[in-house]
Amino acid sequence: MRSESGALREGLEGRIREIGPADVLVGIPSYNNSRTISRVVQAVSAGLAKYFPDAKAVLVNSDGGSTDGTPEAVAGAGVDMQSILISHRVNPLQKITTPYHGIPGKGSAFRLIFELARALDVKACAVVDSDLRSITPEWMELLLRPILKEGFEYVAPYYQRHKYDGTITNSIVYPLTRALYGKRIRQPIGGEFGFSGELAGHFLSKDVWGTDVARYGIDVWMTTTAIARNSRICQAYLGAKIHDPKDPGADLSAMLAQVVGSLFSLMEEHAALWKSIVKSEPVPLFGFQYDVGLEPIAVNVDRMVGAFQLGVREFAPLWEGVLPAEDLVALKEMSRPAVPLALPESVWVRIVYDFALAAHRQMMSREHLLKSLTPLYLGRVASFIRETQESGHHEVEEKIEQLCQAFERDKPYLIERWEPSANTGAPI
Amino acid sequence: MKDIWNTAFVEPMQEFFRQVGSFLPHLLAMLLIVAIGIVVAWMISAGINRLLRTARFDQFSGRVGFTQALSKGGIREAPSHLIGRIFYWVIVLAFFMLGLSALQLPPVDRFVDQVVDYLPHLLVAATIILAGLLLANFFATAALIAAVNAQVVQARLIAQGVRVALLLLALAMALEQLGIAPNIIVAAFSISFGGAVLALAIAFGLGAKDAAKVFLEQRLKKERPKEEEFSHL
Each residue of A81-93: pLDDT tens digit? Predict the structure, then answer.
């Protein structure tokens, strides 16, 4: 039963033999999440007991070497089933808490989860983040039932989020994924997913675990891989997504570079597919869509505008050849302190496509290129925040829909300039 | 009269033609060696040029900033072509030296020996300078991007500092390799580098001690200025 990657070690193999084949596996990647993980484990346990009482279920905590007692919190997290009106399950929930190996990151944690899913021969898997505060037992049903009962192979989450939350998703990942692959998956990098055991095996068969996929790029990679495999995909409405506040010092440019870099790498891999797709189509959405009261959040628009102005001033020479001359002139004009910043969606779409083309043509160091996108991204976010200051949830969704349509409208610009022979080497 | 004529003119002329006669084959050998060298150099440089283009070296140079560094130095040639040309001239020079030694003239032989001994140092020094240019450009861009993304207003100054420091280091190493006043070079570099670090330490510790205190307090207590509360992902 030794895994190809060597991710499953001796102790773990014994535990797998002890458990034997299972029906359902829920994976929770973690790193120093002792504050929140108990509640996540409790919600998962309650959800599995309530909605899949007869299924043999395994909970896997794939940990990145936490030092704050996260594994102990997982081991100690129990649920008083009677207090939440759930009868005891037929099969007790099996828990596996184990550190993962490889590049530190969510992707490496997922790799171990896929390995265990394959080793346990499960029918359905779900993964949930360990820093969630809004998870409920119902999430298990919403993520797993479409796989077990409806014949879907991949379930993407659908949340109601604050209008300024998930800005990388709203301004790049969702519009670009939708325009390229033709599926309107609103949260392609949501963090919570359901997928079949077979699809987990397919994910595992790909040789991507030494790339950015092993870090922040795993979510978009899973979604795109599922689309490219022509898997049956649906979305599940999970309500609000509220998680533990992230470290404010977390490097935005590294995170953005990993996500966008993964998107661009996937464009290389699936060029033939996305070039053939001309329009997008809706993806089925399950779950009752209730409105959620979301707390106001602080944003510092002036800081973003400052980052944009500094970036345009200093990076303009780097972008020569990446962005068309007229766009560079327009950006310089927008970055004048006397002018209120407004980076229109049409310019933003061109910027994203031009960066994708520059990465494809390997015009400069890939890391330098991707990290130099940060000020432009912050400029676009600042413009979006200013545009939607007075807007409600539905108006904001309308704005995002307009951006998606702009991405789809301008897709021929990308296709015309994408030379098939340009990229033969691995990105550096 | 005849003896005088023989001694004054015929014998020197005979000696001259004898020496020219014995020197001519050496000269011809030298010319032949140089001609072969030119042909070999042309073939090798063309091969290297082709190999580098196949390996997409020009694109790689563009990515790591080598092309831009050359461009800033007024060299507009494609890097693959430039390296091909460097090989061409190095090979021509090597064959020229070989040709000179074929003349079998003691002073020329001594000169050739000295040049041949020095040539490896010259090549290593040239490699150091090229690598220094490349690394200085790459790390200066990396520093610029990191500083701008951290919203440091003096980002360009930091990038220039990184570039100059790396170029100075490369220059010092190259001069040391060439044996040009090695002691002075090492001492000058150590003094300049140490001085710069000391100046920065004094500037940070004394000139900006309040800012340093706030910075360190924030770092140690993990307190940061309030920024966004939303998640980008």
Answer: 666 666 666 678 8
Residues in contact with A89: Cβ distance below 8 Å, sequence separation at least 6, in sequence order: A48, A49, A53, A54, A57, A81
The question of ipTM being above 0.90 is answered as no
Domain C-terminal end among B104, B122, B142: B104
Q: Are residues B24 and B59 in the same domain?
A: yes
Interface of B with A (CB under 8 A): 56, 59-60, 62-65, 138, 141-142, 144-146, 148-149, 151, 153, 155-156, 224, 226-233
Residue A187 has a CB neighbour count (10 Å cut-off) of: 24
Q: Which residues contact A328 (CB under 8 A, 6 or more apart)?
A: A316, A319, A320
Q: Strand A154-160 relative to strand A193-196: parallel, antiparallel, unpaired?
A: antiparallel
Q: Are residues B88 and B172 in the same domain?
A: no
One domain, residues B173 and B199: no
User: Same domain, yes or no, for B150 and B187?
Assistant: no
**Are B40 and B130 contained in the same domain?**
no
- Give whole-number Cα distances, A156 to A93, A127, A143, in Å: 24, 11, 8
Interstrand relation of A57-63 and A94-99 (parallel, antiparallel or unpaired): parallel
Computed over its alpha carbons, how large is the radius of gyration of chain B? 30
Which among A253, A314, A428 has the least Cβ separation from residue B155? A314
In CATH, what class is A10-286?
alpha beta
Secondary structure class of A202 (helix, strand, coil): helix
What domain range is B121 assigned to?
112-180
From A11-20, A81-90, A127-136, the region with the lowest mean pLDDT: A81-90
Both B11 and B85 in one domain: the answer is: yes
Q: Which two tokens stand for residue A73?
A: 């919190």
Structure tokens at A23: 């029906």
The alpha carbon of residue B136 is apart from the nearest alpha carbon of chain A, in Å, by 14
Question: Is A369 in a helix, a strand, or coil?
Answer: helix
Per-residue pLDDT tens over the stretch A226-246: 999 999 999 999 998 888 766
* Token pair 């990098």 in the structure block, residue: A189
B53 CA: distance to closest CA in chain A (Å):
13
Shared-domain flag, residues B56 and B118: no
Q: Which two tokens stand for residue A264?
A: 């661009």
